[in-house]
Amino acid sequence: MRKISMALAALALLFAATAHAQSEPAARAAAVAPFVDEQTLAVVRVDRTHVDLAMMFAELQKLIALPAPLASAAAAEIEGPLGQLRQAGVRELYMVFSTAYLLHPPFVVAVPVEEGADAEAIAAVLRSGFDGVEQIRGAVCAGQEGVLQRLRSIKPVHRPELRAAFAAAGDSAVQVLIIPTADSRRVIEETLPLLPEDLGGGPSTAFTRGVMWAALGLSGPPESSLKLTIQSQDASAAENLGRALADLKEALSEAPGLRDFRPEYDRIAGELMPRVSGDRLVLSLDKAAADGLLRDILGPLFGRAREEAGITRSQANVHNILLACMMYRKDHQRDWPERLEAVAEKPWLRNPRRPDLEVGYAYRKPAKDDSARTVVIYEKYDQWPAPGIVVGFFDMAVTRVDSEERFKKMLASGR
Question: Which of 40, 61, 88, 242 has its CA 20 to 30 A from that of 346?
Answer without folding.
Answer: 61
